[in-house]
Amino acid sequence: MGSVRLAGVGLGLRPPHYEHVLNRRPAVPWFEAVSENYMGPRGGSGGRPLEKLLAVRRDYPVALHGVSLNVGSVDPLDAEYLKRLKTLVALVEPAHVSDHLCWTGVDMRNLHDLLPLPYDEGAIEHVASRVRKVQDLLGRRILLENVSSYLSYGHSTMTEWEFVAEIARRADCGVLLDVNNVYVSSVNHGFDPRRYLEAIPRERVGYMHLAGYSIAEGFLIDTHDHPISDPVWSLFGDAARRFGGVPALIEWDGNIPAFERLEAEARRAREVADGALAVAA
Amino acid sequence: MGRSPSPPELVRVQRWLADVLTEPRGVSAALSRRPEGAPWIVEAPPIDRHTRLAVYADGYFERLLEVLASDYRAVKRAVGERAFRELAAGFLSRIPSTSPNVTDLGGAFPTFLRKHPVARTFGFLPDLALLERSALERLYRDRLPAFTPEATAALPADAWAASAIALDTTVDLLRLRWPVHRLWRSRDESGRAGRTLRRPAPTRLLVWRDDWVRVEELDAKRWDLLCRLRAGETLGASLSRVNASASEVQRWFSDWISNGVVKGVRR
Question: Measured between alpha carbons, how far is B227 from B232 in angstroms, rounded to an integer?
């Protein structure tokens, strides 16, 4: 992991809040930034967003969280993308570098979505070998996040939690445990989310994500545009008990509210975690 | 977990899914055309297989439409929501994303519009898209350090004429047929005013950023001077070709230095 250790409940850094963060220096323990937003388009560079991120970094620890590593794809790893990520990592010196356990495109066509993999031995070996290459290139361990999913494959031979734990073990990477994603997928596929938490090795969890979902007809969609729901708060309490003092992060990407609303969610996360740990003690 | 008789290779699964999820006519049409992969997807409560696929297919289009609508707000405002959706759908089926970064998605949109029949109705649209793309790209350029008074003073007075002027790396100079900067400035307004242009007018624009992106209309003399300086001509040679008074030149440079267009002098 990075040299900076995270603690407490951080917030996702989003452009509407740059000026608030830079001018008022709110008491937030750390921020998470979406890596691709600071890498710029082809032929470009980080530009204004990177100027803002580096200004925030002067006062706060930062974790970098990507959406386009495409680690589960059968396409070759994108060397240009990795080069730009490595440059960004060198500039930001983040506490963690993470991306998603999924595929986002194939045959050089990018779907810009977090698509699930079949949970089988072939996919484990494929992903684990690619994660090891990424970690070798970056010179550091990365975290992989479990994604929300709306479909699963009939040829899967294990559960998602077995798949996540085994990839983390074989790749020797960490886990970014998204509690909201566990809950969303548990509703969409009909499994017990607490079994999922119990199967994730404690020592591999770098931090946890919390976010809000949308309710569709009979299922849930991970939209990050609502407050965190009561079932997810409850599951987060269980996660806090299991994973001890692991940091957490509030994500909010659509209908982004005032910064104070995010701070309120972070306060509640601290209360839920503290309460869960007090009960456990 | 169930096990199908012959598990498909990962490459087959991913190619099939990508094809189904990006079919412009929707999941039903895609499954009619490519039914072979449907049994790979679990059919189980609470939602059926078609809906499971449609969540991703709908998300694909809506997500990329949102990116284009954000990057081309003035174009969307000019043609309206519905027409913009149709333009975006046509664009995405012709030029799908090949970049890990969504900022690259709309790079070819101005060219697409130039060749599209919509440009016959809205003649200004390709120029407007070009300006919006330029503005977005300025946002993702790193700036040079500010040109300080100390740096200006360090250059002997007799050395200026033979020196080249460094413009900021964010500077773009656009020569357009339509005064689309008027539409760009009102791109976030909700009223109907300032959404379209009726008549073309030759337009020269300076696009750059200090903190935010800025767009300024230039007259022929300033345009000519900035083009020459950007091409690497010395200050003396450039000024000798531009019919401007000393006070004009002094005022221009004062503005360009203070607002971050001019960033240095190369001897």
Answer: 9
SS3 A242: helix
| pLDDT, tens only, A195-206 | 999 999 999 999
Question: Could you tell me if residue B128 is inside a domain?
Answer: no
User: Which pLDDT tens digit goes with each residue over B24-80?
Assistant: 999 999 999 999 999 999 999 999 999 999 999 999 999 999 999 999 999 999 999
In a domain, A200, yes or no: yes
Pairwise CB contact (< 8 Å): A44 & B7: no
| CB–CB contact A154 B42 (8 Å) | yes
Q: Looking at the structure, do residues B150 and B262 belong to the same domain, yes or no?
A: yes
CA atoms within 13 A on the CB side of B193: 1
Domain with B85, as residue range(s), is: 10-106
User: How far off is chain B from A143, nearest CA to CA, in Å?
Assistant: 19
Who contacts A219 (Cβ-Cβ below 8 Å, separation ≥6)?
A: A150, A187, A188, B46, B47, B51, B55
CA distance B120 to chain A (A): 30
A to B CB pairs, distance under 8 Å: 156
Half-sphere exposure of B142 (CA within 13 A, CB side): 12
Instruction: Judge whether A154 is closer than 8 Å to chain B, CB to CB.
Output: yes
Say whether both B195 and B258 belong to one domain: yes
For residue B166, being part of any structural domain is answered with: yes
Task: With respect to residue A3, please indicate whether it lies within any of the assigned structural domains.
Answer: no
Angle at alpha carbon of residue B146, lines to B145 and B148, rounded to 5°: 125
- Judged by a CB distance cut-off of 8 A, whether residue B45 touches chain A is yes
Number of domains chain A is built from: 1
Is A2 among the domain residues? no
Q: Which of B46, B56, B143 sits opposite A113 (nearest CB)?
A: B56
Q: Does B143 lie in the same domain as B80? A: no
* B36: DSSP letter: G
**pLDDT tens digits, residue range A174-198?**
999 999 999 999 999 999 999 999 9
What is the percent of chain A where pLDDT is above 90? Answer: 94
Q: What is the pLDDT of residue A103?
A: 98
Asked if residue B123 belongs to a domain, the reply is: no
- Across the interface, whether the CB atoms of A40 and B11 are under 8 A apart is answered no
Query: Is residue B76 situated within a structural domain?
Result: yes
The CATH number of the domain holding residue A34 is 3.20.20.150
